[in-house]
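DATA SHEET
Item: assembly model
Revision: 1
Owner: S.N.
Input lines:
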Amino acid sequence: MAQALDPHAAIATTASGVETDDGPLRTADGMPLARALARSQTQARRRAFLLVLPLLAFVMITFVVPIGQMLQRSFYNDGFSANMPQVSEWFAATEPGTEPGEDGWAALAADLQASAEARTIGVVGTRINYDVPGTRSLFTSTGRKVRDGIEPPYREALLEIDEEWGDPVLWGAMRQASTPLTTNFYLASVDRTRAPDGSIEQVDPRQRVYVMLFMRTFWLSALITGLTFLLGFPIAHLLATLPTRKSNLLMILVLLPFWTSLLVRTTSWMVLLQQQGVINDILVWLGVIGNGGRLQMIYNQAGTIIAMTHILLPFMILPLYSVMRTINPSYVRAARSLGATSWTAFRRVYFPQTLPGLGAGALLVFILAVGYYITPALVGGSSGQLISNMIAMHMTDTLNWSMAAALAAILLGSVLLLYWIYDRLVGIDNLKLG
Amino acid sequence: MTGPGQDEAFVVFDHVQKSYDGQTLVVKDLNLTIGKGEFLTMLGPSGSGKTTCLMMLAGFETATHGDILLGGRPINNIPPHKRGIGMVFQNYALFPHMSVGENLSFPLEVRGMSKSEREGRIGRALDMVQMGRFANRRPAQLSGGQQQRIALARALVFDPELVLMDEPLGALDKQLREHMQFEIKHLHEQLGITVVYVTHDQGEALTMSDRIAVFNDGRIQQLATPSQLYEAPENSFVASFIGENNALSGTVERREGERAAVRLATGELIDAVAVDAVREGAPTTVSIRPERIEFKSELLPGGAETIEAEVLEVIYMGDILRTRMRVAGNEDFVMKCRNTLGQTRLEPGQKIRIGWHPQDARALDPV
């Protein structure tokens, strides 16, 4: 009793978790309320999960897994290490830069023979070919000759087949390929390479393309984003302020590019912009330019910029429109009645309220532009190519998927970085996509 | 307070007409003079042209014909930002991306005032509406009533001589609305500004205004003080729009000066005060306010006429008992009795005689 009367004792009992009469709430049959609540909601939650399960599975199978696999290729390639186990072991046991002794040559010869028999020598050659161009045929031709057996001394035997086997650069490349994990593709993506002694150096100036292409991709994407803003803002404003009937008509015109095949749109730009095309013809006919001075507006950067701005314009207009539609005209009226000129009212009252839409549109257009492929490929010529065209080339022509994956990973990383910066500066909650 | 200095014309609408589509007139030949320091309310149903008039005065719409004068100067060609008119909008129109202080600072910044002067004025304006502590809040963080006060402070902070209010209390609940009515009224008296107030709420108009302009169909139906408007409506529209009203239709049998004898549809002859437009022999509608009707003979004023009525329904409303009756063929004839201790409780089906002072019956144009 004395304990119950002492307020401090009562607090101590509650704090130590001993359940008193006024402890945790319970249901009528004595089950703790929290558990009863969780149980009653379990079924609804399970049903909701089953509803989204198909989509989840679809996204996993078609998106997350393939992209994960693709990205894995950018730092993991076992084309050499898996098929050349003995020489890989020798590389692991020796210091980088070690002159190969007879044991190394023997391991190489044995692996080449085994690999040739297993018909994997092409894979091995391809992997080394990424680092030392022109070596794939060395592997395949040597493979053909050693398939039926090779006699020691292996060094002399291999050098007799091809002098190139003695090249320290080749051995350096093989050493790097002897472990499946590699950063070489990332280094190559930023125009760097590894010297035979393992140090990182810039590639030959004539081969430096990727950094320039990345810069060009980001610069052109920013430019296109700016152009879509300049062109799209007035249209979006018009759409948001016109009477419904007229704005619907205008909306159809805005959406028309969406409903037209990308190829048709791009081809029509070719018809319009090429040197013998409509615009040049009209300019010549008007006498603005001479017949010899026809403008080159396509198959260069200008072509990429014009066509991509056109194609991406709706992605800027739609978020802007959806935000502008919600801005009550009385805000601008209030600003005017308070003494602001129409320009001040626009700058200080209307424009700031469109920022969520502008942010969403700019982010959308920029991210789409950074990864755009078909349009630059068709109308970009050589100066209008973007990094995505390089990725596609590695996917389809050189079959260097690891290189494609590394370039794509850098692109993905920089987009995520931009997204993060945007979130820090503007806040992703302020984004309004529609 | 009866319109200080109404002889001094501050705002003048001179034969103003407005059309949006070139085919119909939204405002038909508006003539209106507003005195300096006056609180004038434009009252009317939606679509009656009252908001259009306000927008023309603010400069957001242009008059199709006629002149609007402000302080003796035609303002048709002056853009809104040079008119120096404060305005409170229906949805407050507080800039959502600015704090309360920045909202109030806006009109002062565009007028190029120094920072210290701005701060002084903002402080005074916020204190005026008892919102001094809220300068750093965002409008979205304020309640409806608080936003209303800020909108008011923003319209007043640059000392305009004329303030327009477009249904500013429409979004508030009843209690807050009544409270804000008094606050706006007090601010008006305190600052001596001219206020043009638009509303469709007749109670609001009666409480706040010096004069009320009742709009309907693009015209001013009557321009008068609240009491004149309620007690002496000039036509049937005003009588039915302001307050509750009983209408009995009949024909004017005799007319002598102000007085007219009206033969009702069911044959009874009653006395009424006639407006100018009503002629002998013409059809008319007699209008009587429900609270001016009595059924106890001892309470009837001297000279009152009585008429037979059948009680149809008694609605208990707390402070009053609202009795619906059939009178001269009209089944929506309403009498309001105070719910006092000794009040007689009427029953449906009961036959009684009701009456009113002839001064309270007005013979108006037929509906």
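QC remark: DSSP finds 20 helices and two strands in chain A.
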